[in-house]
Design brief:
six-stranded antiparallel beta sheet; globular; 6 helices; about 900 residues; mainly beta; five-stranded antiparallel beta sheet; single chain
Length: about 900
Amino acid sequence: MKRSILTALTVASAVFSIQAVADVAGGDILEFEPAEGPSMVSDGASTNKVKILRTPDGTLFAIYGEAQDVDINGNSLAWNAKGAKTQKPNDIVIKYSTDEGASWSEALNIDNTAALSSARGILVQDGMPMIDPLTGTPDLINDPRAVDYPGDSDKPNHRNVGNLLLVSFNSKYCPGGEQRFVVYPELFGIAVPYSCQYVSRLVWNPQSKSFNTYEAWGGLPYKTDQLTSGIRDAKQDATRGNKFAYVINWQEDPMGLKLGEAEGPGAGASGANVNHGTDIWYTYLPMLNAAGTGPDPARFVNESWSEPVRITRNVFMQGPLEGREIDTHPPGEYDRGKVGSSRSNIGLVDDNTIIAYEETKGTEGWEEGKYVRYHAFRFDAPPVGGEHGCIISNPWENARRVRSLVQSASQEVPLLFIYKQGDYTQGGPSDIMLRRTVGGFLPENLQPAVDVENCRVSIMDDEDPLYAIREEVHEAAMNFSGSRTVGGEPGTGQMGEAIATGANPLENALAHRGVMRGSTVLLGYSYVPDLVQFLDLDSEAPYNFMVRRSSDGGATWTDARNLTPLVTAESGYTVKEPRIVPTPGSGPKCATDPTDCQDSNVIYVAYGLQENVYDHYEDAGDVDIYMQVTLDAGLSFSAPQAITAGDALFGMPDDFGDFETQIKIRPDGRESYTVWSGDDGIAKHAMYRHGFVRGDTREVDTAHGTKSRVTVVPDEQSEATLAATTWHTLDGYPDVPADYDFPHGVLDFTVTDVYLGGTIQVTLTFEEPLPAGTSYWKFGPTHEDPTDHWYSVPATIEGNTITYSVTDGENGDNDLLVNGTIVDPAAPAVYSPAPVTTPATDGGGSGGGCTIGGGEPDPTLMLLIALSLIYVMRHRELKKA
């Protein structure tokens, strides 16, 4: 397999130079196949939001929206609200690969709604629709511009519990007679039907390498259920699953999708901007078997989804259309409320569901913005009739984009929230805030604490949270990203320390992501020091991807570390859509196959690059996607490598715009499987690349307390994993070479996963440059001398690094066996002979002759002495002859 761009030696050296500038450590070599560049999963038709799944047998599944060629009574198009243009309608399709992405199956359409129509729409911007004289509302039946609207489906969301796969999405095909529509005057009369919520289930058969079919599913390899009617507009669905159940939530807007106000960082029409009365809805599919040990496939196949229910309670009545609504909607009774909820995030903690979301304040303009609320309940006991969630944000600021990290309730910290908060509304500067729960996941378990007594009040009940929530009880959340002052150090705050979001009103943080595994938490976010200048000047500092790490469940944190130091104003790029992805749990073959055993210390990060352009005049083009890996839970990271065909940071751009990464990882973390969208200017394609970690790195203290890093890079057939890595003192090592100092002690490490007879390259990196005269010594047997002894080995020693090679079973491998394991005790040594002095005479004067000592020997003098001795010896030999 080819190495990626650089040789292993060059990469290992380059990694440290990056670390010196940007606090990014590492030496792990990420390699990708195909070596020549990514492959294409899709078949040429334009795609939308590709996702990836992996089942325990290693099969990969790519799921995406695919444009369909349809003709429904002369219409073949749908409206793309984000792109503000027409497009071919999408169906959701799935492909699988049983050879790690080298080839893919034919696409299976699990949707099949694009060629169907249940409503009418208008796709030309030519003024408002004609009006029905009886109702005064738009008449899409008789308007000559109206067409039969295809069942265009939005992005898929996905989850798998073992071999049980779930895919959720919403579609414009909503048979049943309740589907409504919305007309957009700001788009000069475009009229679009509401969406309804769908969910599909599939069962993978690892023996036959195919999807199972069932009589209960009509003999099909999938079952797709329509969960809603389209009487409200469904958007932003999310799914989770474990052995207890699958759960889904989504939002429903009674007045249809709002287009947004173009004040935030996105393209709008995402479902963040909602009408009053928008609620979060929920359903579940129970799966636990009778023994309580795992999911029951029969229940997954045969059980019905629970009746969808409102989780929030934002509607107080149904009423007829009013004002402008009459011109933009069909007649009927509509949900009425004072607030709207959106962008819900769902988690499943054992048998409990966690739902968090943002909700408008409903103060009718005098205090703009949103709260972040959350609910916790047993998955099969959602609140009857809905309830008001507990507010965890500062009610006087604008909070949104909440994400939750969850793990088993047996952990001390089972739940952690991160969200944006600031003084400004849409698009304004904000910081990332953090709260966690300790000992449970109810509001009373939150740290920093909230006003448990009043956090559920709502203006819907004529109680204003702005005044009901007591500031002295509702403690400030941890400011995870912000700085204490303008120009201060960002991302240095700690739990329990209140850093006001207005302390630095210029900076902005977004795109927060994270991983929580036991007491170890790794969180990241994109950060820009001055949002206004970034938006208005393409020469200003761009967004960078920052990470912080906690080893005690979020009680204390490292300072923020910039993983993207090469992304500068001079580079012309900015970071977009970062990802932090952990390894999955151990698979069923873990007892016999170590690659199926989870290594929770392995975490992947990825991010896209976008052009840094003047925001108001140019559209920022997507560029390339980069990946890094940490094998020690965030203590150190590998150098960034482009997974895409292009590599803009290192001067190799291509014609594809790459974005929206999705990653799956083998349980041991040594292989990755990544999909993303690649835009060639004509269509968006589902792209794929298979990644490998070729090497390992560890940071370890020397015997004398200084820092060092050990990096192993294997040949092309090996992976190489560092096992035990320890510095020892010289105590216990016999016959230490005379006239040598060992300033760091002796490094003892073992490398596994080496190809039989394979070679690894080892690089040792130290905090300070190594002294002149440093050499590298090993202690152990050799094929020539089976006893333990000291011997020097060839090594390249430059600055603060030592690089050398070891072959499995050859000298340097202490077990001298070709067994895929290399045992390597060795140490840097500095030649430092004891000084030689001549005793003084009785009179105290110096003796005659030459004295060598009192410092480093003179090389010229030593050469002359050596030549003289050779001359004398040869002269004696000639005389004997």
